[in-house]
Amino acid sequence: MDNNVSYQDEKIKFEDIIEKNVDLSKYTSMGTGGKAQYLTTPGRFEELITALKFAKENNLKITIIGAGSNILVSDKGIEGLIIRTHHLSRFSTKGNMFCCRAGMSIEKAINITLDDSMFGLEGLSGIPGSIGGAIIGNSGANGHLISDHLLYVDYITFDGKTHRMGTQVINFGYRYSSFLDIKDCIIFEAGFGLSNSTDSFKKSREEQSTIKKDRKEKGLFDYSSAGSIFKNPEGKYTAGELIDSCKLKSKKIGGAMVSPKHANLIVNYKNASSTDIYKLAELCRATVEKKTRIKLEYEIKLLGDFT
Ligand SMILES: Cc1cc2nc3c(=O)[nH]c(=O)nc-3n(C[C@H](O)[C@H](O)[C@H](O)COP(=O)(O)OP(=O)(O)OC[C@H]3O[C@@H](n4cnc5c(N)ncnc54)[C@H](O)[C@@H]3O)c2cc1C
Questions:
Q1: pLDDT averaged per 10 residues, the chain (length 307)
Q2: Taking the domain 239-303, which CATH number applies?
Q3: Catalytic choice (84, 101, 175, 285)
């Protein structure tokens, strides 16, 4: 008898899907950060619900991470339960509709939809995040936003209840979505309405590879980073231009460096700690504020204690 059979209705024991004291640096694009007290990477709805229940019963704080490409995790680690969405990656396609779970990478979603002659997501090429991480912060590039073709989002509140929100009631803004206000929730699934226009395939594949090549040439992937550290403030200048005007390109603290190519990128150029990166980011903020009176706001999410 095959002993690899898994029954959908068998009871999931939390001990079987949990890891303790997990080094989080391997799950962040920065490659830094301390340990998670508990970490789980559910692949199924039932596993996710079991994890939420365990956290509730044990009064554990819950933190969600997707692809870890927009976070800085404290070197002191994170107390409570980390839910990593990486294995929530099922999908389905029908007509011009593409539905996927939140842990699917943006790049994979683009490849699946293009292969199925569905167009619209390819403008997001080269963003190294998950669908859920992109939705919560309304990620975008080159004039395209994840919210552009979104139809609905299914999310689960930490009390285990599932909800569906159509895009007509979700507020999206610059690196903002309503889910940031709901806070105690995990984005579980999203549905996109894409174009089926037959002449788009070649154009879309070309767009995908041009954007990726362009981003590579601009040095975005030369070192580990978390993308733009700060949001662009309102007004004439971008965060990068303000930091550059303070002559901070190539500035280093420990193993962290302001990218010589993009002033709004702090890179892990040599075994940096999260503390190095945070101190350098704070130095950039303080210098820009002193010179211009503009207080830069973090785009990346700081997880854990940085005091
Ligand atoms: C080289 C590089 C280039 C980048 N370029 C861009 C760019 O052009 N445009 C852009 O917008 N971003 C860019 N980014 C930033 C990043 O890739 C995006 O913000 C991405 O969408 C974040 O997704 P993630 O899965 O990595 O989220 P994470 O970093 O894992 O998490 C980010 C936040 O979202 C929350 N979160 C993640 N998944 C869920 C979920 N399922 N439910 C609830 N909360 C969740 C986390 O708790 C955290 O607060 C870049 C990053 C890098 C490293």
A1: 50 83 98 98 95 95 98 98 97 94 97 91 94 97 93 97 96 96 95 82 76 79 94 96 98 97 96 98 98 97 97
A2: 3.90.78.10
A3: 175
